[in-house]
Predict the 3D structure of the following.
Amino acid sequence: MSVEKTLSIIKPDAVKRDLTGKIIAMLEEKGLRVVAQKKILLSKEQAGSFYAVHRERPFFDELCEFMSSGPIVVQVLQGNSAIELNREIMGATNPEQAEAGTIRKVFALSMTENSAHGSDSPETAREEISFFFSGLEILQFCHPIRVSVNNTFLPFPLRNSLKTLLYKRCSCGSKSSSIFFAVLSSAIFIITCPSMGP
Ligand code: ATP
Ligand code: MG
């Protein structure tokens, strides 16, 4: 498992229905983090250029019309196996075939108005991210895994060393680093707490 970035789009049908927050929550709940985001309105030509790979398909014109019919939220998601994970959370292209609980099953209106886009390979993720974002717009720093529960009990120097360690290890959404930190912080809490008094 490696930390990846992927391009995600919340499509016009979902933005129009004020589902942006709900969709982001579904992505974040599964361990994906937003490291770049903006709300934009594409022209039909820009939509066509983004979906150029489908230029010869019968649905191309309808797709470009739809993708330029209202604002979209474009975002870069980061996490372990982010490309595959994002597509799992989105569900199948056709909402009727999507698994229960996926974004498309819950929110999509049709095959075209299917609420979300996700890159389908590392190569397309790189191309699609650079289609919408410059390097400067993508957060390189990942916020640390939640540490506050035991951390407040730690003496100041120890707390700082622990934070430094955590920032270095942070791999954004990594379950293994969360577990690593939970075990480490609990162990330090058990060792240091009795000597700290009331
Ligand atoms: P996306 O690229 O948007 O994440 P996808 O990878 O699941 O979707 P693609 O085959 O790349 O599916 O199709 C791109 C988009 O074109 C689909 O999300 C859908 O909006 C539209 N689309 C695909 N197939 C059809 C179809 N048969 N009829 C109408 N629209 C379609
Ligand atoms: Mg696709």
Summary: DSSP finds ten helices and four strands in the chain. The radius of gyration is 20 Å. The first helix runs from residue 12 to 16.
